[in-house]
From TrEMBL:
Keywords: 2Fe-2S, FAD, Flavoprotein, Iron, Iron-sulfur, Membrane, Metal-binding, Oxidoreductase, Transmembrane, Transmembrane helix. It comes from the Bacteria. Its main location: membrane. Residues 214-314 form the FAD-binding FR-type domain. This is Ferric reductase-like transmembrane domain-containing protein. CDD domains: FNR_like_3 (cd06198). It is a multi-pass membrane protein.
């Protein structure tokens, strides 16, 4: 099927829409009196609350898996913007709580804690808003990098869903006590529309579309095949997979319905270009998700969310490509090799492994070398201080020795995030245009 590529104009338009929504909210605040209403502190509290609410909805939309956003930005950029917007909305929410409480306390002559208690227990919807704030605070605290490192992906993902609860619990107090939500028909229409759009996006793209695609394509496991020590490929069959808008280089969230853990989704890249009736992923036994996949039995039903990711052949700007992979990151690069259109000698693959015995798809890569003219180089050896094994010397010089026409190529990367960041630094030092470096971080 035809796949639509991303567009710089579409990306700018979407970013502009987000910025305009914030300006519109400020305009609503100004039309309601701005700083001249109810004292400066309370007025600033209302403004911070409005901005926090708007950004909270933007945050929901960023991770609602909307195909248009996924295609234009990719999951990596959306996740990073989601974190930035999320932390910004969180601190604005805290400022809103403090400023509103302080403003009401000053007007009534009561203490800060006393006024806070009165707001929570006597104002309409405030008890629900307090519960929502607690849920959002818990999500933010557990999103801090140090906290995430102590959690399994599955646990963090489940806890993160409480953000939706926080958004939902905040709505009643905004509609019952928020003047800027109700002071004009335009304000009321904007906020109701914003909440309805956010809710619809989640229900359609996070719930409805995955269920529809899973039912329509009826994926089942056909075989689980060992590829290398601790690495297996899962082959799946299904119906009308040519109607699934998936490309080589993309990933899905997979749920294998075979008992304990079946409700947990894990992200794995396609390790072969999608076929009309087959999909394949290749997984290393890292963490609960990867280890569990190795035990999946043929016949197991599979639920999917996706496809996600923007590092596909559509990003290519040249007829020459350099693919660089480390470890199980070879999965996305292997699928790209199958989909890329190229002439013999115009694609080079650099594959970083600790030893040739641990190389995944060695036989398949040999086939690409012999039949498609792909130059395959295994970078095997002990880990050094860079992304290359020990003994390669200066990174930039070594890269040019292996790929003399480096500056003429698009570069596709996949591997551990710190490793990819080191590779990108080397590529930039070597003079490669940033627009020709294509990768996504699969960190959470």
């Amino acid at each position: 099927m035809r796949h639509r590529a991303s567009s710089p104009w579409a990306r700018r338009a979407l970013i502009g829409a987000g910025a305009l929504s914030l300006l519109f909210v400020v305009g609503l605040w100004l039309s309601g009196g701005g700083l001249s209403s109810d004292g400066t502190v309370s007025a600033l509290g209302r403004l911070s609350g409005l901005l926090a609410s708007n950004l909270l909805l933007v945050q929901v939309l960023l991770m609602a898996r909307i195909p248009l956003l996924e295609r234009q930005f990719g999951q990596d950029k959306l996740a990073r913007q989601h974190r930035l917007v999320g932390f910004t909305s969180f601190w604005l929410m805290i400022a809103h709580i403090v400023l509103i409480t302080a403003g009401y306390a000053a007007a009534s002559g009561s203490g800060l804690l006393e006024q806070g208690w009165l707001l929570v227990t006597t104002y309409p919807g405030m008890l629900l808003a307090f519960a929502g704030a607690v849920a959002l605070i818990a999500v933010v605290v557990l999103s801090i990098r140090a906290a995430r490192r102590r959690l399994r992906y599955e646990s963090w993902h489940l806890i993160h869903l409480y953000a939706y609860l926080g958004v939902g619990l905040a709505l009643p107090h905004q509609l019952w006590t928020g003047a800027e939500f109700l002071n004009s028909p335009l304000a009321t229409a904007y906020w109701w529309s914003a909440y309805v759009v956010a809710l619809a996006a989640v229900l359609i793209f996070r719930v409805g579309l995955p269920l529809w695609r899973s039912w329509r394509h009826g994926l089942r496991v056909v075989a689980v095949v060992p590829e290398a020590p601790g690495v297996v490929s899962v082959h799946m069959s299904g119906r009308q997979l040519d109607k699934l808008p998936a490309r080589a280089g993309q990933f899905f969230l997979w749920r294998f319905l075979d008992g304990r853990g079946k409700s947990r989704a894990n992200p794995f890249s396609l390790s072969a270009a999608p076929q009309q009736d087959r999909l394949r992923i290749t997984v290393k036994d890292l963490g609960d998700g990867g280890a569990r996949v190795a035990t999946v039995r043929p016949g197991t039903r599979v639920l999917i969310e996706g496809p996600y990711g923007a590092v596909t052949s559509a990003r290519r700007t040249s007829d020459k490509s350099l693919l660089i992979a480390a470890g199980v990151g070879i999965t996305a690069m292997r699928s790209l090799l199958e989909e890329l259109a190229f002439q013999s000698g115009k694609v080079t693959l650099l594959y970083r492994v600790r030893s040739r015995a641990e190389a995944v798809f060695a036989g398949e890569l040999d086939w690409f070398s012999a039949n498609r003219g792909v130059t395959v180089s295994y970078l095997d050896g002990q880990r050094g201080d860079s992304w290359l094994p020990r003994g390669y010397g200066d990174d930039v010089e070594a890269l040019y020795r292996m790929v003399p026409d480096l500056l003429e190529r698009d570069v596709f990367l996949c591997g551990p995030v710190p490793w990819m960041e080191t590779v990108v630094a080397t590529l930039r030092t070597a003079g490669v245009d940033r627009a020709r470096i294509h990768f996504e971080r699969f960190a959470w």
